[in-house]
Amino acid sequence: xxxTTRRRARLFDPESGKSVILSLDHGAxxxxxxxxxxxxxxxxxVGSSRAQGVVLNKGLARSWGGNVDQRxxxxxxxxxxxxxxxxxxxxxxxxxxxxALRAGADAVCVHVNLxxxxxxxxxxxxxxxxxxxxxxxxxxxxxxYARGGQIVNELDPALIGHSIRLGGxxxxxxxxxxxxxxxxxxxxxxxxxxxxxxxxxxxRKASLDIVLDDISQALEAGASGVCxxxxxxxxxxxxxxxxxxxxxxxxxx
Length: 253
Prior knowledge:
By secondary structure, this protein is of the alpha/beta class. The chain is built from eleven helices and ten strands.
């Protein structure tokens, strides 16, 4: 597991000990949403930011991965599904670990939605990926949401805590979940998780200040960083938004 551990460590700033991962894999699921046309520009600029990683689907990784600075970790999303499919929370493996490695991956990502009738298959996918990735020394980031027919409130603190625990129990090297807004329960789950916990940005917020406040609260509760997408690339000035997020996570430089 030395290779896995070393590669995961590169996804964290050596001074702050925190991580900022820019998630740019939304095109497959959501199509031509606002801001999606800025992705290539952002990939060229991310090296001058203080972000530690970027998440891409395999097609963009093959075509534009060369634009990503070598100091920034390339995380390839293995899961796919569109907003048009039924059920909308379905995610299937659309990329293998060896294919991700050939595309230049420093780590891989699997998306799991719990609390629905496809949960068992998505958990099975996570299990297969962790085994294959660890054989090749690649870290696995599990992005876990509570979504589906059994879920009333996706931000239920108990569900967020269970999501954190699930990722740690099933062998992920990083777990990314939404922030519940309830610091005590989130912190308890994060502190007892055997691997670092990141918070996802979620849907586009009304303002970047709201995002930054949520990040501060999550970090104080025990999060090890953030995995943010829409709230950066859909911002009118995404490069400036990324700079503000990295400053909030790592502190002023």
